[in-house]
Amino acid sequence: MSALLSKTAEYGIRAVLYIALKQVQKKNLKRCLTTRDIAKDLKVPYHFLAKVIQKLVKAEIIHSKRGRDGGFILKKAPEKIKLFDIVVALEGEDLLKGCVLGLPNCSDKKPCPVHEYWKNIREEIKQMLSEKTLKELLNGEFKI
């Protein structure tokens, strides 16, 4: 998926999955997870991840707790968070609307050479992201 999604979306999905996994493993997670812990365990840049996490907090996918025992936990149950929610929070609504080649004038009326192929693939990707929840991924073979 990383070939289609930016590092922002990739790190965001991984971070939310990580938080969900920790919450499931330690039922009723008492200690919030810090950005530093998440970045270290996922082996991603701390400062970049901090910006990604703030977008996820603003989108109300994760909850931020301030203070000495502060950090992050999921705002909703894993079965209520779709991958599409995470991607849209980080990439915006237009992510799967544009031309795969980045051509500004590509449209149904003036298609680029791969327009029809991409249009079908784009819809399949959007459907998959809209249907898959964090819980489904956690029940699968998710490994960090």
TrEMBL record:
<protein>
    <submittedName>
        <fullName>Transcriptional regulator, BadM/Rrf2 family</fullName>
    </submittedName>
</protein>
<dbReference type="InterPro" id="IPR000944">
    <property type="entry name" value="Tscrpt_reg_Rrf2"/>
</dbReference>
<dbReference type="InterPro" id="IPR036388">
    <property type="entry name" value="WH-like_DNA-bd_sf"/>
</dbReference>
<dbReference type="GO" id="GO:0003700">
    <property type="term" value="F:DNA-binding transcription factor activity"/>
</dbReference>
<dbReference type="Pfam" id="PF02082">
    <property type="entry name" value="Rrf2"/>
</dbReference>
<dbReference type="InterPro" id="IPR036390">
    <property type="entry name" value="WH_DNA-bd_sf"/>
</dbReference>
<dbReference type="GO" id="GO:0005829">
    <property type="term" value="C:cytosol"/>
</dbReference>
